[in-house]
Amino acid sequence: MRIANLDDRLALIVDDGTGTDRALDVEQASDGLFSADPQAIYPRWDEFQRWAARADAGPARTFEHRDLGAPAPRPGQVLAIGLNYRDHAAESGLDLPDSPTVFTKFVSSFTGPYGDVVLAGPTVDWEVELVAVIGRTARRVPVEQGWDHVAGLTAGQDLSERTVQLAGPAPQFSLGKSFPGFGPTGPWLVTPDELADRDDIALGCAVNGESMQKGRTSDLVFTVPQLVAELSAVLELRPGDVIFTGTPAGVGGGRKPQRFLAAGDELVTTVEGIGTMRHRLVSA
């Protein structure tokens, strides 16, 4: 199942049999059983899945991808994981963590999978990520039950202004990664059962057609179910919460010489089985 935020309305994405994606407006198709608010679906995730399995896709319509927004646009909590790929830790010159390295991206940074992102400074970096959205409350969840609490997966970019992120005696990770537009996700949420192997997903990004990052989630230090277990041992994960699971090697700050995004650059982000995001970087 794929769900999307289309023009700020919850939509179920269906294939009409010709390979063309069409959108079913959930509020209209359910006769108001579910609201149009994309964020409101996660506390009712199990009920929604049962309805979606028998929904009539007849009134589904074509749509423009540029009208898609973040599939979980207003999460109560955003948890982002640093140094969660071995090769990225190595390029950063840091040891692998013994437990997840956690920071946040403030929700005001969230944006959709297409459009312009304003550069916040001269050292804005790319970080492709697999993003998980919680579908069931998780508190002290064992690893083997971790996937049971995930509604679905989407693509994400943890855009980072490195100068702000690393300034001062104590780094400001959350601020440096939370400028407007620095948290794009999309193009939609895909349930794990739709993926060939939910534990081994290819992901990558390119700048102006040049590949910058390539990785596979099988190389994660802490897998998605491990993250659910580790995080829920400390705090309660709630439906609609978002987890940025980490980025593989190839970031601009780890290159020699370093390379950062500039006005006019096109950043294309791809996650296998989920889809592609496209953003153009523009000057302030």
TrEMBL record:
GO biological process: small molecule metabolic process
A Pfam family it matches: FAA_hydrolase
UniProt name for this protein: 2-keto-4-pentenoate hydratase/2-oxohepta-3-ene-1,7-dioic acid hydratase in catechol pathway
PANTHER family: FUMARYLACETOACETATE HYDROLASE DOMAIN-CONTAINING PROTEIN 2A, FUMARYLACETOACETATE HYDROLASE DOMAIN-CONTAINING PROTEIN 2A-RELATED
Keyword Nucleotide-binding found: no
Domain Fumarylacetoacetase-like C-terminal: 78-281
Family membership: Belongs to the FAH family.
Entry keyword 4Fe-4S: no
Species lineage: Bacteria, Bacillati, Actinomycetota, Actinomycetes, Pseudonocardiales
GO MF entries: catalytic activity; metal ion binding
Keywords: Metal-binding
InterPro entries reported for this sequence: FAH, Fumarylacetoacetase-like_C, Fumarylacetoacetase_C_sf
